[in-house]
Structure formats: C-alpha cells, structure tokens
Amino acid sequence: MTVTSIPTLHVCTTCRAGQTLAESDRRPGQHMLDTIAALLDPKAPAVDLQEVVCLSSCDHGCAAAISAPGKWTYLLGRLEPSMAADLLSYAETYARSATGTVLPSRRPASLARVVLGRMPDLNQARVAQERAA
Q1: Above 80 in pLDDT, residue 123?
Q2: Domain residue ranges in the chain
Q3: Of the candidates 121, 119, 118, 117, which has an alpha carbon nearest to the alpha carbon of residue 70?
Q4: Structure confidence at residue 20 (pLDDT)
Q5: End-to-end CA, the chain
Q6: CATH hierarchy code of domain 8-132
C-alpha cells in the first residue's frame, strides 16, 4: 500500500453562488463546507477541511481549492453541496496521485468540468529557484 498525505481542501464560505442574499442568510459556500464536514470520517478524514474567506471565483459558484505538499493545487468551481461525496472521492484520488493530477476520466461525472485552474506547489518552485541561484 502506498502512503499518501491527506490533502487540504479549502472551501470558500463567502460564496453566494450567484444568489442575492441578505447579510444574515446562510451562504451556499458555508452549506458546502458543512455538507463536506458531515461526510468526513472523524477517525480517518479524506481531507484536512479548511474554511477560507473568498477564493475570488465569485462568477463560478461555490469554489474550493485542493492542495498537498509537492503536488499541483487545483481551483475548483461550479460546486454544489450535492457534489460533496464526489468531491471527497476526488480528494482520495488526488491523494494517491504523485502530482495531484486527476484526469477528467478519473473524476466522478459530476466533477468533470469543475477545474478552473491549477498552480504548481509554490514551495517546490521556491526551492528550485534557490538551487538555480
């Protein structure tokens, strides 16, 4: 069995998912976070779930980012609470991937078109720059 690190899933809790809401209304992003949290096994969570205030992806509905040391970070959008279980399945596949790359054919069908962008492991890029200097 391959040892994998648990990825961090950052969920934007300020996302309004295109809805006009009063300040006191529960945000769809918060609902997304709460739904994922309810599905996590407290003894063996699939992700380190983190709340984040604004991923600047407001035009793309609920948003999240998944990252792990030495792997690509993926920005995900157009998410809905109904996708929470599929998102955890995706996180498990991400964790098993050496680079974090999960091809669309390996994602749950509901997540086939949710990747908005990806960024390299910024810490790894910094180390490479230091070596080159």
Answers
A1: no
A2: 8-132
A3: 121
A4: 77
A5: 38
A6: 3.40.30.10
